[in-house]
Amino acid sequence: MDLTSSKEPALQIVTVQDQRIDASVALLFKDRMRDVTEGGIDTVLLNLNHVQFIDSSGLGAIVAAMKNLSPDRRLVLAGLTPAVDKVFRLTRMDSVFGVFSTVEDALAELQR
Amino acid sequence: MADDDRAPPFTVRISGSECAVRDGLLQVLGHIRNLNLSSERISAIELVLAEILNNIVEHALTKTHKRSDIEIQGHYSDRGLHLTVLDHGASMPAGRMPAALPPDVDVAVLDMPEGGFGWFMIHTLAQDISYVRADGQNRLSLLLALDS
3-state secondary structure string, B101-133? Predict the structure, then answer.
Protein backbone atom coordinates (compact mmCIF):
# COMPACT_ATOMS: atom_id res chain seq x y z
CA MET A 1 0.00 0.00 0.00
CA ASP A 2 1.82 3.02 -1.34
CA LEU A 3 0.73 6.38 0.08
CA THR A 4 2.58 9.59 -0.73
CA SER A 5 2.18 12.81 1.21
CA SER A 6 2.73 16.46 0.35
CA LYS A 7 2.14 19.73 2.18
CA GLU A 8 0.14 22.75 1.16
CA PRO A 9 -0.65 25.71 3.41
CA ALA A 10 -3.00 24.38 6.14
CA LEU A 11 -3.48 21.14 4.22
CA GLN A 12 -1.82 17.74 3.98
CA ILE A 13 -2.43 15.89 0.71
CA VAL A 14 -2.18 12.11 0.88
CA THR A 15 -2.27 10.34 -2.49
CA VAL A 16 -3.04 6.63 -2.79
CA GLN A 17 -0.69 5.32 -5.47
CA ASP A 18 -2.27 1.84 -5.61
CA GLN A 19 -5.15 1.01 -7.97
CA ARG A 20 -7.13 -0.94 -5.38
CA ILE A 21 -8.19 -0.49 -1.77
CA ASP A 22 -9.69 -3.90 -1.07
CA ALA A 23 -9.94 -6.40 1.76
CA SER A 24 -6.39 -7.66 1.24
CA VAL A 25 -4.87 -4.20 1.86
CA ALA A 26 -7.48 -2.49 4.08
CA LEU A 27 -5.47 -3.01 7.29
CA LEU A 28 -2.27 -1.85 5.61
CA PHE A 29 -4.07 1.24 4.36
CA LYS A 30 -5.24 2.10 7.89
CA ASP A 31 -1.72 1.64 9.26
CA ARG A 32 -0.10 3.69 6.49
CA MET A 33 -2.66 6.48 6.90
CA ARG A 34 -1.88 6.60 10.60
CA ASP A 35 1.86 6.74 9.86
CA VAL A 36 1.76 9.50 7.24
CA THR A 37 -0.66 11.72 9.19
CA GLU A 38 0.91 11.26 12.60
CA GLY A 39 1.84 14.45 14.44
CA GLY A 40 0.20 16.83 11.96
CA ILE A 41 -2.57 19.31 12.63
CA ASP A 42 -3.93 20.17 9.18
CA THR A 43 -6.96 18.90 7.31
CA VAL A 44 -6.06 15.77 5.31
CA LEU A 45 -7.05 15.64 1.67
CA LEU A 46 -7.08 12.03 0.47
CA ASN A 47 -6.47 11.94 -3.27
CA LEU A 48 -8.02 8.78 -4.75
CA ASN A 49 -7.51 9.55 -8.44
CA HIS A 50 -5.37 6.44 -9.04
CA VAL A 51 -7.84 4.10 -7.30
CA GLN A 52 -9.97 2.11 -9.74
CA PHE A 53 -11.59 -0.28 -7.26
CA ILE A 54 -12.73 -0.13 -3.67
CA ASP A 55 -14.77 -2.71 -1.75
CA SER A 56 -16.61 -2.47 1.58
CA SER A 57 -13.42 -3.25 3.52
CA GLY A 58 -11.61 -0.42 1.74
CA LEU A 59 -14.50 1.92 2.43
CA GLY A 60 -14.43 0.87 6.09
CA ALA A 61 -10.71 1.60 6.21
CA ILE A 62 -11.25 5.15 4.94
CA VAL A 63 -13.99 5.65 7.56
CA ALA A 64 -11.59 4.35 10.21
CA ALA A 65 -8.95 6.82 9.04
CA MET A 66 -11.46 9.66 9.35
CA LYS A 67 -12.36 8.57 12.88
CA ASN A 68 -8.69 8.28 13.78
CA LEU A 69 -8.09 11.89 12.70
CA SER A 70 -11.14 13.29 14.47
CA PRO A 71 -12.03 15.38 16.33
CA ASP A 72 -9.07 17.69 15.67
CA ARG A 73 -8.54 17.06 11.98
CA ARG A 74 -10.89 16.62 9.03
CA LEU A 75 -10.50 14.05 6.28
CA VAL A 76 -11.79 15.14 2.87
CA LEU A 77 -11.66 13.26 -0.43
CA ALA A 78 -10.79 14.17 -4.00
CA GLY A 79 -10.38 12.46 -7.36
CA LEU A 80 -12.99 9.72 -7.00
CA THR A 81 -13.05 7.59 -10.15
CA PRO A 82 -16.52 6.37 -11.29
CA ALA A 83 -16.31 2.95 -9.58
CA VAL A 84 -15.13 4.50 -6.30
CA ASP A 85 -17.69 7.29 -6.48
CA LYS A 86 -20.44 4.70 -6.93
CA VAL A 87 -19.50 2.88 -3.70
CA PHE A 88 -19.55 6.15 -1.75
CA ARG A 89 -22.94 7.12 -3.22
CA LEU A 90 -24.52 3.67 -2.71
CA THR A 91 -23.61 3.67 0.97
CA ARG A 92 -24.37 7.41 1.36
CA MET A 93 -20.83 7.89 2.63
CA ASP A 94 -20.51 10.74 0.13
CA SER A 95 -22.67 12.72 2.56
CA VAL A 96 -20.25 12.07 5.42
CA PHE A 97 -17.03 13.21 3.76
CA GLY A 98 -16.34 16.44 1.96
CA VAL A 99 -15.92 15.19 -1.60
CA PHE A 100 -14.18 17.26 -4.29
CA SER A 101 -13.86 16.28 -7.93
CA THR A 102 -10.16 17.16 -8.15
CA VAL A 103 -7.30 18.11 -5.83
CA GLU A 104 -7.27 21.56 -7.49
CA ASP A 105 -10.97 22.07 -6.67
CA ALA A 106 -10.36 21.02 -3.09
CA LEU A 107 -7.40 23.42 -2.76
CA ALA A 108 -9.43 26.30 -4.18
CA GLU A 109 -12.31 25.61 -1.80
CA LEU A 110 -10.42 24.71 1.37
CA GLN A 111 -7.81 27.45 1.21
CA ARG A 112 -10.21 30.30 0.55
CA MET B 1 -28.69 -11.17 -25.55
CA ALA B 2 -25.51 -13.13 -25.05
CA ASP B 3 -25.29 -16.01 -27.48
CA ASP B 4 -23.36 -19.10 -26.52
CA ASP B 5 -20.46 -18.54 -28.92
CA ARG B 6 -19.68 -15.19 -27.45
CA ALA B 7 -20.39 -16.07 -23.84
CA PRO B 8 -20.03 -19.72 -22.84
CA PRO B 9 -20.68 -20.76 -19.24
CA PHE B 10 -17.60 -20.75 -17.05
CA THR B 11 -16.25 -22.11 -13.79
CA VAL B 12 -13.49 -20.46 -11.76
CA ARG B 13 -11.89 -22.10 -8.72
CA ILE B 14 -9.73 -20.26 -6.22
CA SER B 15 -8.25 -21.05 -2.85
CA GLY B 16 -10.08 -19.43 0.06
CA SER B 17 -7.63 -16.67 0.92
CA GLU B 18 -7.69 -12.88 0.74
CA CYS B 19 -4.94 -12.87 -1.87
CA ALA B 20 -6.79 -15.36 -4.08
CA VAL B 21 -9.88 -13.12 -4.21
CA ARG B 22 -8.17 -10.65 -6.57
CA ASP B 23 -7.13 -13.52 -8.81
CA GLY B 24 -10.67 -14.91 -8.84
CA LEU B 25 -12.10 -11.52 -9.79
CA LEU B 26 -9.57 -11.17 -12.61
CA GLN B 27 -10.48 -14.60 -13.94
CA VAL B 28 -14.23 -13.89 -13.90
CA LEU B 29 -13.71 -10.47 -15.53
CA GLY B 30 -11.69 -12.28 -18.19
CA HIS B 31 -14.68 -14.51 -18.93
CA ILE B 32 -17.07 -11.56 -19.40
CA ARG B 33 -14.60 -9.40 -21.34
CA ASN B 34 -15.99 -10.38 -24.75
CA LEU B 35 -19.44 -9.07 -23.86
CA ASN B 36 -18.25 -5.46 -24.28
CA LEU B 37 -20.11 -4.30 -21.18
CA SER B 38 -19.95 -0.70 -19.99
CA SER B 39 -17.27 -0.02 -17.41
CA GLU B 40 -20.06 0.77 -14.94
CA ARG B 41 -21.57 -2.71 -15.40
CA ILE B 42 -18.17 -4.38 -15.09
CA SER B 43 -17.46 -2.45 -11.88
CA ALA B 44 -20.80 -3.50 -10.40
CA ILE B 45 -20.15 -7.17 -11.21
CA GLU B 46 -16.63 -6.97 -9.76
CA LEU B 47 -17.92 -5.27 -6.61
CA VAL B 48 -20.73 -7.77 -5.94
CA LEU B 49 -18.44 -10.74 -6.48
CA ALA B 50 -15.69 -9.18 -4.34
CA GLU B 51 -18.12 -8.72 -1.45
CA ILE B 52 -19.32 -12.32 -1.73
CA LEU B 53 -15.80 -13.75 -1.88
CA ASN B 54 -14.56 -11.54 0.97
CA ASN B 55 -17.49 -12.64 3.13
CA ILE B 56 -16.64 -16.29 2.48
CA VAL B 57 -12.95 -15.81 3.25
CA GLU B 58 -13.57 -13.70 6.36
CA HIS B 59 -16.57 -15.52 7.85
CA ALA B 60 -17.26 -18.95 6.36
CA LEU B 61 -13.72 -20.25 6.00
CA THR B 62 -12.12 -19.05 9.22
CA LYS B 63 -13.67 -21.82 11.27
CA THR B 64 -13.02 -24.66 8.91
CA HIS B 65 -9.84 -26.57 8.21
CA LYS B 66 -11.22 -29.00 5.68
CA ARG B 67 -11.87 -27.81 2.15
CA SER B 68 -11.16 -24.11 1.78
CA ASP B 69 -11.54 -23.73 -1.97
CA ILE B 70 -14.23 -21.55 -3.54
CA GLU B 71 -15.97 -22.27 -6.84
CA ILE B 72 -17.61 -19.58 -8.97
CA GLN B 73 -19.98 -20.73 -11.72
CA GLY B 74 -21.34 -18.35 -14.33
CA HIS B 75 -23.87 -18.71 -17.12
CA TYR B 76 -26.01 -16.34 -19.12
CA SER B 77 -29.70 -16.01 -19.87
CA ASP B 78 -31.68 -13.26 -21.54
CA ARG B 79 -31.95 -11.69 -18.07
CA GLY B 80 -28.22 -11.37 -17.52
CA LEU B 81 -25.32 -13.13 -15.83
CA HIS B 82 -26.22 -15.81 -13.28
CA LEU B 83 -23.48 -16.44 -10.73
CA THR B 84 -23.35 -19.27 -8.22
CA VAL B 85 -20.65 -19.28 -5.56
CA LEU B 86 -19.92 -22.48 -3.63
CA ASP B 87 -17.82 -23.10 -0.56
CA HIS B 88 -17.47 -25.74 2.16
CA GLY B 89 -17.06 -23.36 5.07
CA ALA B 90 -19.30 -22.57 8.00
CA SER B 91 -22.98 -21.92 7.40
CA MET B 92 -24.25 -18.36 7.48
CA PRO B 93 -25.64 -17.41 10.90
CA ALA B 94 -28.91 -19.29 11.54
CA GLY B 95 -28.65 -20.69 8.01
CA ARG B 96 -29.82 -17.40 6.51
CA MET B 97 -28.35 -14.49 4.61
CA PRO B 98 -27.72 -11.44 6.78
CA ALA B 99 -30.18 -8.56 6.44
CA ALA B 100 -29.32 -5.94 3.88
CA LEU B 101 -29.99 -2.78 5.83
CA PRO B 102 -28.47 0.45 4.59
CA PRO B 103 -25.67 1.68 6.83
CA ASP B 104 -26.80 4.38 9.28
CA VAL B 105 -24.63 7.37 8.42
CA ASP B 106 -26.71 9.94 10.32
CA VAL B 107 -24.59 9.52 13.43
CA ALA B 108 -21.64 11.24 15.10
CA VAL B 109 -18.26 10.77 13.42
CA LEU B 110 -16.95 8.42 16.08
CA ASP B 111 -20.06 6.20 15.73
CA MET B 112 -19.75 6.00 11.95
CA PRO B 113 -19.98 2.38 10.74
CA GLU B 114 -16.76 0.81 9.41
CA GLY B 115 -18.51 -2.32 8.18
CA GLY B 116 -21.89 -3.73 7.26
CA PHE B 117 -21.78 -2.24 3.77
CA GLY B 118 -21.15 -5.49 1.95
CA TRP B 119 -24.55 -7.20 2.02
CA PHE B 120 -26.28 -3.90 1.45
CA MET B 121 -24.29 -3.36 -1.75
CA ILE B 122 -24.86 -6.96 -2.90
CA HIS B 123 -28.62 -6.58 -2.46
CA THR B 124 -28.62 -3.17 -4.14
CA LEU B 125 -26.67 -4.27 -7.23
CA ALA B 126 -27.90 -7.85 -7.76
CA GLN B 127 -31.27 -9.59 -8.11
CA ASP B 128 -32.72 -13.03 -7.35
CA ILE B 129 -30.29 -13.62 -4.50
CA SER B 130 -30.71 -16.99 -2.84
CA TYR B 131 -28.72 -18.94 -0.28
CA VAL B 132 -28.92 -22.66 0.37
CA ARG B 133 -26.98 -24.69 2.89
CA ALA B 134 -26.90 -28.36 1.95
CA ASP B 135 -24.48 -31.28 2.28
CA GLY B 136 -21.96 -29.17 4.15
CA GLN B 137 -21.86 -26.68 1.34
CA ASN B 138 -22.86 -23.01 1.02
CA ARG B 139 -24.49 -22.16 -2.28
CA LEU B 140 -25.17 -18.50 -3.05
CA SER B 141 -26.84 -17.65 -6.36
CA LEU B 142 -27.67 -14.31 -7.86
CA LEU B 143 -28.40 -12.49 -11.09
CA LEU B 144 -26.56 -9.48 -12.45
CA ALA B 145 -28.14 -7.44 -15.21
CA LEU B 146 -25.82 -6.86 -18.15
CA ASP B 147 -27.39 -3.74 -19.65
CA SER B 148 -27.12 -0.62 -17.52
Answer: CCCCCCCCHHHCCCCCCHHHHHHHHCEEEEEEE
No. of helices (H) and no. of strands (E), chain A? 4, 7
Superfamily of domain B10-144: Histidine kinase-like ATPase, C-terminal domain (3.30.565.10)
Q: Domains of chain A, with CATH numbers?
A: 3-101 (3.30.750.24)
pLDDT per position as a tens digit, B48-60 = 999 999 999 999 9
The answer to ipTM > 0.85 is: yes
Q: Does B54 touch chain A (CB under 8 A)?
A: yes
Q: Is B114 part of the contact surface with chain A (CB cutoff 8 Å)?
A: yes
Residues with Cβ within 8 Å of residue A91, at least 6 apart in sequence: A56, A59, B102, B103, B105, B117, B120, B121
